């Protein structure tokens, strides 16, 4: 990451890619200053690995409750983060929390579509809105020109399955309609945010982590979480205003919409 200690927030940080990001960020040669590791149930069994990690790095990791589908929890989390970061603001926000329901168009129910959309699109939208004051504060406090992830940035976990360009080839293999539609929505949300907030010098990018062996990716995935996260953190560290509104792979290449 950057030369000076930055503050980072990651949603869905209790398992999968989110937990691996927390691990690699605190173990990096230049660790982050404050890392807000958010999850739905900080005191529940699914957050045990995160809590163990947080105990090892009590000065850096702050475990905070955040449910992407619950606006009150997002607002409360933003308040808690604000009380820690103050006028220094939040440098990097990673919209990682996500869900996937399997199903073809004919199998997908209204409930599947609404739940997936709420988690993967409405959640990130509300998170961006509620954390904007802290991102703006970070942009102002940095004193650096241009855009970067050590100044003020939002990185969201994109998907190849949300890309319109690949539907013909990939649909038969993975007909996850609600997930595809929601990720396409997240991609558009990111482009809108990049356009609307460029004068604030807040960078918005999408990174596709690859097909990763996590609970969501399954055993047949192509790579393990440590390799995906290593690549993504390197891409995040290299982001500049040229990548505002970009759709990148964990290896740094530009992907088709
Ligand atoms: P996992 O299913 O392993 O983990 C998902 C994480 O999101 C969990 O921490 C989960 O928390 C959290 N989460 C789900 N719903 C909510 C919610 N409403 N509020 C807060 N947290 C929530 O997935 P991955 O780690 O594989 O994926 C992480 C991100 O990367 C997702 O956005 C996914 O779409 C994206 N991605 C993953 C790919 C892959 O191959 N794995 C490929 C492309 C994109 P809890 O334990 O409480 O359920």
UniProtKB/TrEMBL annotation:
One GO MF term on file is: oxidoreductase activity
Coiled-coil residues: none
* Residue ranges occupied by any Ketoreductase domain in the UniProt entry: 6-200
An example Gene Ontology cellular component term from the record?
cytoplasm
Gene3D superfamilies found in the cross-reference section? NAD(P)-binding Rossmann-like Domain
Q: Which InterPro entries would you find in this protein's record? A: Fungal_SecMetab_SDRs (IPR051468), KR_dom (IPR057326), NAD(P)-bd_dom_sf (IPR036291), SDR_fam (IPR002347)
- Membrane-spanning residues where? none
One Pfam family this sequence matches: adh_short
Write down the PANTHER family for this protein, in alphabetical order: C-FACTOR (PTHR43544:SF33), SHORT-CHAIN DEHYDROGENASE/REDUCTASE (PTHR43544)
Give the family per the record.
Answer: Belongs to the short-chain dehydrogenases/reductases (SDR) family.
Q: What is this protein called?
A: Ketoreductase domain-containing protein
UniProt source species = Zoarces viviparus (Viviparous eelpout)
């Amino acid at each position: 990451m950057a030369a000076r200690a930055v503050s980072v927030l990651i949603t869905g940080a209790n398992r999968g890619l989110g937990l691996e990001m927390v691990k690699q960020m605190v173990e990096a040669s230049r660790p982050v200053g404050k890392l807000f590791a958010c999850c739905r149930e900080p005191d529940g069994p699914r957050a045990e690995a995160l809590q163990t990690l947080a105990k090892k790095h009590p000065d850096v990791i702050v475990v905070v409750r955040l449910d992407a589908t619950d606006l009150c929890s997002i607002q409360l989390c933003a308040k808690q983060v604000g009380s820690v970061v103050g006028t220094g603001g939040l440098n990097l926000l990673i919209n990682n929390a996500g869900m996937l329901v399997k199903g073809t168009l004919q199998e997908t129910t209204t409930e599947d579509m609404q739940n997936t959309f709420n988690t993967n699109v409405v959640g990130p939208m509300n998170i961006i809105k509620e954390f904007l004051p802290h991102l703006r504060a970070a942009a102002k406090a940095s004193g650096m020109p241009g855009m970067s992830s050590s100044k003020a940035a939002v990185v969201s976990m994109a998907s190849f399955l949300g890309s319109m360009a690949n539907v013909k080839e990939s649909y038969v293999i993975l007909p996850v309609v609600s997930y595809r539609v929601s990720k396409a929505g997240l991609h558009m949300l990111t482009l809108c945010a990049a356009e609307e907030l460029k004068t604030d010098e807040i960078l918005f990018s999408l990174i596709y982590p690859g097909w990763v062996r996590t609970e969501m990716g399954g055993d047949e995935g192509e790579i393990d979480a440590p390799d995906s996260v290593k690549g993504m953190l390197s891409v995040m560290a290299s982001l500049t205003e040229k990548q505002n509104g970009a759709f990148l792979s964990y290896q740094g290449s530009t992907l088709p919409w």
